[in-house]
Amino acid sequence: MDNAEIADRLDAFASLLELADANPYQARAYRRAAESIRSTPADLADLVRTGRARALRGIGPGIEARLRELVETGEIAELAELERELAPGLVGLGRYLGLGAKRSVELAGALGVRTADELREAAAAGRLRGVPGIGAKTEARLREALAREGEPRAPQGMLLPRAWELVGAVAGALDGEPAGDARRWRDACERLAVVCSVADPAPVLARFAALPQIVALLERAERRAVGVTLDGVPIELIAAAPERFGTALLRATGSAAYVAALEPLPEATDEPAVYRALGVAWCPPELREAPFRGEPPVLLREREIRGDLHCHTTWSDGRATVEEMARAGSERGYDYLAICDHTPAVGAVPGLTADDVRRQGEEIAAANERLAPFRVLRGIECDILPDGRLDLPDDVLAELDWVQASVHGGQRMPRREMTARVEEALRNPYVRCLSHPTGRYINRRPENALDLERVFAVALEEGVALEVNGLPLRLDLRGEHVRDALAAGIEIVCSTDAHSVLGLGNMPYAVATARRGWATAASVVNTRPWPAIATRRARR
Ligand SMILES: [Zn+2]
Ligand SMILES: [Zn+2]
């Protein structure tokens, strides 16, 4: 058993403990141990056999005992028992069908079924009707969902980090390629897919069905299967013949509209060969939304980013100090990092007053002395008050290197007022960038009512850049808006809005979102060295 397999078993155990409503700390402890095992270069089975497993972070005597059992017998007895008791396959299927975990288990118990196939048979035989709590409407919905073939979609779009983790793990275990919405870096992924190149599909389909992430199969054909996770998320596996792998990968990457416009697709072993045969230039997956057969631009690349212009520290709601964030930025290879903590109006978390801003300035100056030539910039994420004024006086803003303006409170304002509020802030001569312009949280909070066209016009007039915020829950501006902003002649900034050292690692999400908006390095402010940004224009 290698480290990845062991870690996967611990993760599965954690999921079942959660499902059983066990002590949540226990589940979390198993997840932490799994993470620790994945990241160690040492062979875990070896450590267990020689009694050294507890040297790893997150492994205490309890987990060590489980690990010994797993390494010696290939199984954890309690895990197997929980699996029997809780029927994770039915829970996953139930969630996919829109039922809660408890409801799924009750349904399975009432029908006496143990597998997805048995549930399907029971539904086909009309036995759902006899189950307490299942009305005619629910029955019809379940039967329809069970019979649905072809293109299963996640019930709610999955955020990119989880989608990548899941698709990456499945692709890694099966030696396949990630495809679907994640490969196009869609902000909320509904289609999760992996494509493998195999002459004989049977072994890879069997391995797929046995993966710890897959609790049940929704469909199975000769070269295709759809599995479902414990959370009810369907993942598609395509086992393509090697001579057709490129074609299958292009199709499984989508989008449906983009692919349909290229059909009929010629068969080829890799994607570039498919494009060559079509006489169409290879297209970066991020651009494959609307039909397109043209020559794509050279899109922004992550390595072209010279610094991060939006992050937080312990001065507001960040978890690391100015110096820790700065060192982390420097280690990422950046030339500069702007510290942009909150101002008092943000409310829920601490914000910096004028006095705090000046004291923080001294700390930043000291960090600069230690870290030169790396440049720590004095920035602020200044709240835009409901009337459009900024939360700090102009003379304080004038001292700073980089001012981001943000709407946090009062987001339900009517469109006219919200637009006027943002416009007023953009007119402030010290504002350099509008943070997360639309204020959305993916799946949780809609975009603010804001006339973006008007915002673009004012931003252009005032020379203010718009942010592409890389927090996976935000991704704001999103791709379509980036494209509109660039067409309007506005520059963008790719930022992480990091609240920890780890958070600085979200830059790929900001970059991918900018790429989805067709951004090239030339229109991204932070691809330039700091002096070029500092003197970009003389404000009034
Ligand atoms: Zn913010
Ligand atoms: Zn922020």
What topology does this entry show?
Layout: H1 3-19, H2 24-39, H3 44-49, H4 61-73, H5 77-86, H6 88-96, H7 101-111, H8 116-124, H9 136-147, E1 158-159, H10 160-174, E2 177-179, H11 180-183, E3 188-189, E4 192-197, H12 201-210, E5 216-220, E6 224-228, E7 234-240, H13 245-253, H14 256-262, H15 271-278, E8 307-311, H16 322-331, E9 336-342, H17 354-371, E10 375-383, H18 394-397, E11 402-406, H19 415-426, E12 433-434, H20 452-462, E13 465-469, H21 479-487, E14 492-495, H22 507-516, H23 530-534
Parallel strand pairs: 4-7, 8-9, 9-10, 10-11, 11-12, 12-13, 13-14
Antiparallel strand pairs: 1-3, 2-4, 5-6, 6-7
Helix pairs in contact: 1-2, 1-5, 6-7, 13-15, 16-17, 19-20, 21-22
What features would you describe in this structure?
The chain has helices at residues 3-19, 24-39, 44-49, 61-73, 77-86, 88-96, 101-111, 116-124, 136-147, 160-174, 180-183, 201-210, 245-253, 256-262, 271-278, 322-331, 354-371, 394-397, 415-426, 452-462, 479-487, 507-516, 530-534; strands at residues 158-159, 177-179, 188-189, 192-197, 216-220, 224-228, 234-240, 307-311, 336-342, 375-383, 402-406, 433-434, 465-469, 492-495. The N and C termini lie far apart (66 Å). By secondary structure, the protein is of the alpha/beta class. The chain is 44% helix and 12% strand. β8 (307-311), α16 (322-331) and β9 (336-342) form a beta-alpha-beta unit. It is globular. α6 packs across α7, α19 packs parallel to α20 and α21 packs across α22 (507-516). One zinc ion binds at residues 310, 312, 381, 497.
